[in-house]
Every structure is written in structure tokens, then in C-alpha cells.
Amino acid sequence: MIRILTDSAADLTPEELKRYQITAVPLSIQFGEQTYRDGVTLDKDKFYDLLQNSGTFPQTSQPTPCDFEGFFEEAKAAGDEVVAVLLSSILSGTYQGARIARDMVDYDGIHLLDSMSATVGERLLLLQAVSLRDQGCGAQEILAALEALKKRICIWASLDTLEYLRRGGRLSAAAAGVGTLANMKPIITVTEGSVCVVKKCIGQKRSMEQIAHLMENRPPDPAYPIFGLYTHERANCTALTAYLSKSGFTIPEDAYLNIGPSIGCHVGPGAYGVAYIAAEG
User: Fold this and answer.
1) Given CA atoms 84, 89, 94, 99 in this order, what sign does their dihedral have?
2) Domain extent for 31
3) Helix, strand, or coil (residue 110)
4) How many structural domains compose the chain?
5) pLDDT of the chain along its 281 residues, tens only?
6) Residue that finishes a domain, picked among 132, 150, 168
7) CB count in 10 Å sphere of residue 43
8) How, if at all, do strands 81-86 and 110-114 pair?
9) 240-277 per-residue burial string, b: 16 or more CB within 10 A, e: under 16
10) What CATH number does the domain containing 52 carry?
11) Cβ atoms within 10 A of the Cβ of 123, count?
């Protein structure tokens, strides 16, 4: 049997984890002196409430090797193989922790994938892993398919506010102030495992135009789903979806996904965007 593992940064709900038979190892989120386990003692609504109202910027911590070790030991004892799809090693030490745990367990049936992505990027890979597992593919075959697919993940998202980049130390107070006055809505992506700004747009309309343009330049593969992204508030995602429909990109409302703490703490509420697998070529 093949067991599929991920981390809570993939933002799958408990219902989805059960439906797809995936296990998620939680990251830790700390607000001041209080530490929470993402998806266990901290849901998304509570996270965004704390983010906006606690007066404290959160710190995220990766799982320890011991958090992975028990799962790996169980798989080894049962003779099962593991395919683990994990948060970008550039963004977190989660992947490294899993590697240490694999070495501790000393079992060749553990296969680790550095997604070089986050949140919905991980989800897209996990959905493919589940599909291949259910088709009877072996662990090595699944891993090879995911390694190829991860290079085609596209995430385009616009920020509604620069405040959380400033609070996280990723933008100076002066730059954030100028950007806010100019109504700047930067578009970010995850590329080569890192979060970076691809466009700096003035106003929401221009931001949506640029996301549509980016999608036209690198169109989605119709064999895979397109997801709409939002942080806490759906209104901007709904507006983007309506705008993208004019360019022929359809995103059903049940494909809107609320992004959790791993990325949400850096972008804040009101962010919106899309994630998909790009067509080959």
C-alpha cells in the first residue's frame, strides 16, 4: 500500500484529508507566548482574527523530525511505501525535517518530494498523487510524475494590502507607505521555491488585467483544475473570477480556496489569485 503524506501548509481541510486518505503533519504558529498547531488547534478563521487583532505578528515553525518519525515507522512496520509532498525547502525546514526522520527510520520505502511550492501548489501535486495511487501506480512512478508536474505549477496572486509584508520585515515602512498611498496591488508568485513579486500594479483593475495577461501567456492545462485563491475574504476572489471569465477562464465557486497561515501571515487578508497546472510547451 502507498501512504500519502503532506504538511498543513497544503491547506487541505480535515474532510479532504479523510476523503483522499492523506495524512498532514501540522506546522506550528506562534502569536506571542501562545503556540498553535495549524489545522489542529488553529483553524483559518481564528488565525485571521488573531492576525488582524492580536497586535502580534505570528511566527511559523516547521515540524520536527520526530513529528514525521512515527508515521514513517508505522509505514515501515506495515511494509507500506510513503510518498510525501512537502512545503518548499526554500520557504521552510519542513522538507529537511522529513529527510532527517527518513534517515532515522532507515527505510527505502519513504519517498520525499520538495514541492518547491506552497499551499495550492502542494494541493495540485497531492491531487495528482492520489489519482495515480488510485490507478495502481507505484511510489517511484508517482514521484517521477510529480517531479515533472511541479515545474508547471502557476500561482498568481494580488495583495490587497502591503501592511503584512511590512510587519513581516519583507518591506520597509517607507516603501509600504508609498505603496499604500499609490494604491499599489503587487502580484506575487512562487517560483523556484520562493515567493517573489512579478508585477507592481496600481489599483485592483490593473492587477486583475495583469493576472489575466499572465494566464494568457502561460495558459492552464485543461486536464487539471484551476483554483481561485483568497485569504479570509472571498469578495476579491469573486471579482477576479468574474473578470477572468471574460478571457475564457472559468473557475467554479466550489474551487475557491481559503489560504492558511503558511502564506496568509505574509500577505494578510483580502489577497486573491489563481493556481493551476500550465499546459506543456
Assistant:
1) positive
2) 2-150
3) strand
4) 2
5) 999 999 999 999 999 999 999 999 999 999 999 999 999 999 999 999 999 998 888 988 999 999 999 999 999 999 999 999 999 999 899 999 999 999 999 999 999 999 999 999 999 999 999 999 999 999 999 999 999 999 999 999 998 876 666 665 544 443 444 345 446 788 888 888 888 788 888 888 999 999 999 999 999 999 999 999 999 989 999 999 999 999 999 999 999 999 998 888 888 899 999 999 999 87
6) 150
7) 16
8) parallel
9) bbebbeeeebebeeebbbbbbbbbbbbbbbbbbbbbbb
10) 3.40.50.10170
11) 24
Q: How far apart are CA 24 and CA 12, in angstroms?
A: 8
Same-domain check for residues 125 and 181: no
Euclidean distance between CA atoms 54 and 9, whole angstroms: 22
d(CA 146, CA 150): 6
Rounded Cα–Cα distance for residues 219 and 278 (Å): 6
DSSP-derived letter for residue 254 is: G
Distance between CA 189 and CA 191 in Å, rounded?
6
Provide the residue type at 79 as one letter. Answer: G
Q: Cα separation of 7 and 118, whole Å?
A: 10
Angle at 17 between CA 14 and CA 18, to 5 degrees: 90
For residue 111, give the C-alpha cell.
519517498
pTM for this model (two decimals)? 0.93
